[in-house]
Each structure stands twice: as C-alpha cells, then as structure tokens.
Amino acid sequence: MNIMNEIIFLVEDAPEGGYMARALDVSIFTDANNVDDLHCKVREAVDCHFEPDDKPKMIRLHFVRDEVIAA
What we know:
By secondary structure, the chain is of the alpha+beta class. The protein is built from one helix and four strands; from the N terminus they run E-E-E-H-E.
C-alpha cells in the first residue's frame, strides 16, 4: 500500500472554454466549465481512482496560463 499525502493537478484553460486538469504522477484527467465545478470534478476523479485507504489527504491545483504580449 503506497499512500500519497498530496496529489497535484496541472490546470490549464481549455481551448473551448473552461478548464482542463491532469494529475502529475497518476493517470487522472478531467475538465470543467468553472472553478467550482473543477473542484467537484477533481475530487470525484480522485475518489474514483483511489481506494479510500490509499486516497491522498490533499489535492493541489496548479493553475498555468499562457500570456502573449506584443514585443
């Protein structure tokens, strides 16, 4: 049994709007229309992926945005 204390999701803006999130160390992906929905969907995805005794204690969302400016 390998218990993780924390799972980190990389969150990016989805091309069609909303957000895409993927876990860094395990194969979990989800998307959502807004941040509140994202919180719910990430929790659901983690619950589905892990057994209750193996589930991480903390979920960290790391938001990444590309910003382009004129040179």
